[in-house]
Amino acid sequence: MSFSPSDLCDPIREARKTRNLSQKELADLAGIGKTAMFDLEHGNPGVRLNTLLAVLQELGMDLELILPETSGQTAPAKAPATPASVPTPAPSPEPVPAPSPVTESLPEHLL
């Protein structure tokens, strides 16, 4: 569902008129400028959030946010990440057989 600042114009204008207030009177009560009040009632997207909230409070109105419903499904579990600084150990090499002792063919000084 898409929501725009212009969707707030009519409800705010109607609430103000129901209370027999001019834009200037409501702006003064809410502590905002008359131009901000005009912009709010005309759907100007540059109206600040605190301005909107001040006017809504003065009019006794609430702004309700509704989170989208979830289908009850949970996100798939992720495997824990390994830090990039920890290298993956290399596979250990095949054991090399020890050479068989060949003492009779070697000279004495090499033994």
Question: Which secondary structure elements does this structure contain, and how are they paired or packed?
Answer:
Layout: H1 9-18, H2 23-30, H3 34-41, H4 49-59
Helix pairs in contact: 2-3, 2-4
Describe it:
The protein is an all-alpha fold and 111 residues long. The chain has a domain at 5-59: lambda repressor-like DNA-binding domains (434 Repressor (Amino-terminal Domain)), CATH 1.10.260.40. The protein has four helices and no strands. It has helices spanning 9-18, 23-30, 34-41, 49-59. α2 (23-30) crosses α3 and α2 crosses α4. The longest helix has 11 residues, at 49-59. The protein is rod-shaped, with a radius of gyration of 38 Å. The protein starts with 8 loop residues before the first helix and ends in a 52-residue tail after the last helix. Mean pLDDT is 78; it is low at 78-87.
Structural class: mainly alpha
The count of strands amounts to 0
Mean pLDDT score = 78
Over the alpha carbons, how many angstroms does the gyration radius reach?
A: 38 Å
Number of helices: 4
- The fraction of residues in strands falls at under 5%
Keywords:
111 residues; 434 Repressor (Amino-terminal Domain)
Concise overview:
With 111 residues, the chain is an all-alpha fold. It has a domain at 5-59: 434 Repressor (Amino-terminal Domain).
